[in-house]
Structure formats: structure tokens, C-alpha cells
Amino acid sequence: NAGVTQTPKFRVLKTGQSMTLLCAQDMNHEYMYWYRQDPGMGLRLIHYSVGEGTTAKGEVPDGYNVSRLKKQNFLLGLESAAPSQTSVYFCASTQSFYEQYFGPGTRLTVT
Amino acid sequence: AQSVTQLGSHVSVSEGALVLLRCNYSSSVPPYLFWYVQYPNQGLQLLLKYTSAATLVKGINGFEAEFKKSETSFHLTKPSAHMSDAAEYFCAVSERGSTLGRLYFGRGTQLTVWP
């Protein structure tokens, strides 16, 4: 039981490049979330999903897209990366609203 | 939307001293309340949660928090700090009755423990 895993762990992009971050969970959770963490800002919700095939915008969705084609996977895409998207990205999942399980994070730098 | 305020972005204590990290929320309806800990270069780990019933909640590693409705607070305490407690701590809330389960986080408090 791996819990929540994120791929890749680190990435450096140039401005304008695209990439996809993968989140996978093996707990059969319905709800999945993408957050970004910036110094002094806490975690802010980018997008979330309440079930396979559904996605919705969170607090800071601009510049990101997501997809949830399979229940266990939640993908976060950056179509044209900008330096403002330099951050640490965390994925989380839950079933009960009483606890979210977090992945180890992806550290992204956009130059 | 919910608002979570953590007073003090940095807290320093000596080993063995009391740890007190403050958290206030904005909702008029008591939400679900959580404290998470983040060690360097790691993800977030749940310390404790308040969902209903007992207002004093005990968590892992000797931490506890008390829900005070009248003060809209959920402060985190530990009687005696240990070097291994050095980390960043986040208070978070989730709205009761919501079907989304999303968390609203405070900005975090970095705890430093001096020997």
C-alpha cells in the first residue's frame, strides 16, 4: 500500500514549456486535490475532483488544467509554464473528509 | 470562503519548554479542524483533528489542541518540546456539510527548537 505517490519529484522547466504532474493513489479514494505551496502562503487549492471523470476549479486555477480519467490518477498540466508557477505541488486524496492523505510533493522550478 | 489565521509565522522554544501554536478560524459554524506537520522536504502529515464531541483533542507525538467555539480558536500545544518537533505546522479547516471536502490552510508556523 503506497498511499499517494507523485511523479516526478523534481523538475526544471523553461518559460513556455509544458509538463504534466501525475498523482496516483491506491486507497480507492473518490476525492483528489492539487495544491501548491509557496513560502509564507500555506497551501492553496488549484483544482480538485470529486470522482472519476469530474474536475473543478479551486482557489488558484489559472494556468493549470487537470484530468481524472481513472479513479486512481489525477493529472495536473501546465500548458505554458511561467516563473510564477515555480512552487512545490502537493496532491492529496480522501474518502471521508476527516483526513486528507498527502503525497511527497513535486518541486517545480520555471526559469 | 473560510479563513484561517495562524498567529506567528515563526516560533522558537527551548527543548523542554511549552509549545503553543495559535490558530483562529473565521466561520460562524464550527468547521472540522486539523493540524498538519511538515518536516523538511516532506509532505504533510496529520497531527490531530477535531470533528465533533470532545473539545480537547489528542494527537500524535504528544501534541494536543483545544477547540474553543467562543474564541473561534484551535490552538496546538505540547507540554515539553523536543528537538524532533522542529518543523512547519499548518492549521486547516473544512466546512461542515460540504460535499467537496476541501481544506483551507493557514499560512503556517515554523517551529524552531533550541537545545
Q: What does this molecule look like?
A:
The complex is a heterodimer of chains A (111) and B (115). By secondary structure, chain A is mostly beta strands. Chain A contains no helices and eleven strands. Chain A starts with a strand and ends with a strand. With 115 residues, chain B is mostly beta strands. Chain B has strands at 4-5, 10-14, 19-21, 24-25, 32-38, 44-50, 56-58, 64-68, 73-78, 87-94, 104-105, 109-114. In chain B, strand 7 (56-58) and strand 8 (64-68) form a beta hairpin. Chain B is globular. The mean pLDDT of chain B is 91. The A-B interface holds A 4, 31, 33, 35, 40-45, 48, 50, 56, 58-59, 90, 92, 94, 97-100, 102-105 and B 1, 4, 9, 32, 34, 36, 41-46, 49, 51, 90, 92, 94, 98-103, 105-108.
Spell out the key features of this protein.
heterodimer; A: about 110 residues; mainly beta; seven-stranded mixed sheet; four-stranded antiparallel sheet; 11 strands; about 0% helix; about 50% strand; globular; B: about 120 residues; six-stranded mixed sheet; 12 strands
Brief sketch in words of this structure:
The complex is a heterodimer of chains A (111) and B (115). By secondary structure, chain A is mainly beta. Chain A has no helices and eleven strands.
Alpha-beta content class of chain A: mainly beta
Percent of residues in helices of chain B: under 10%
SS strand fraction of chain A: over 45%
Apparent shape of chain A: globular
Radius of gyration of chain A: 13 Å
What are the secondary-structure elements of chain B, in order, as H or E?
EEEEEEEEEEEE
Strand content of chain B: over 45%
- Ranges of chain A with pLDDT <50 over ≥5 residues? none
Cα radius of gyration of chain B in angstroms: 14 Å
| Helicity range of chain A | under 10%
Uncertain ranges of chain B:
none
By DSSP (H or I, 4+ residues per run), the number of helices of chain B equals 0
Query: Which assembly state applies to the chains in this document?
Result: heterodimer
**What is the approximate shape of chain B?**
globular
Q: Kindly, what is the distance between the CA atoms of the first and last residues of chain A, rounded to a whole number of angstroms? A: 36 Å
Rounded average pLDDT of chain B: 91
Please work out how many helical segments of chain A DSSP would assign. Answer: 0
Main interface by residue count: A-B, 26 and 27 residues
Specify the biggest β-sheet of chain A.
7 strands, mixed
